Amino acid sequence: MRESLIEAELLFVSRHYRIALLEIPVDVHTVVPQLKIPSFGSCPNYGEEVFALARDKDLLLMARRGTILQLQHCHMFRSHCLFVDYKLPNCGGGGPVVNRSGDVVGMSFHYDSGISAILSISTAISCVNMWTDFGFVSPLL
Fold first, then answer.
1. PANTHER family annotated for this entry (predicted)?
2. Within 13 Å of residue 70, how many CA atoms lie on the same side as its CB?
3. pLDDT of residue 3
């Protein structure tokens, strides 16, 4: 496996949404023709079966299959999170969550004490758009 380092600039970190926006310089002429834009789906729904990609503590790729659960209470004001019935390791967050159609519907992360969650792709895109348009991200979507 070929390893390489790419410098990036940290633009924004949101503890509320648990996301970081990075600016990564690329050579458009050599990289962009090779990139394929993933298909973004709509918001994930309660009861929907999803698949998450993540890394374990040794950085090995892992996949998890699970169902989006509807919990009766809000975890620490995280009403924007969707909780799932699979578990990710503490270091396993940030990977894509796809539905049965192969559409990216969210981003997975370890939440707390064995609970894993999803940030909906619509929320993530709204955060990126707010940063692009206004230079900040509001925690109230």
1. EXPRESSED PROTEIN, OS09G0436400 PROTEIN
2. 5
3. 62
For 91-104, write each residue's pLDDT tens digit: 667 788 889 888 88
CATH number of the domain residue 76 falls in: 2.40.10.10
How confident is the model over 2-16, as pLDDT tens digits?
566 778 888 878 777
Instruction: Give the residues across from 65 on adjacent strands.
Output: 51
Q: Is residue 17 part of a domain?
A: no
**Tally of domains within the chain:** 1
* Domain-located, residue 87: yes
Range of the domain at 55: 49-124
In whole angstroms, give the CA distance from residue 43 to residue 75: 20
pLDDT at residue 120 tops 80:
yes
pTM (predicted TM-score): 0.71
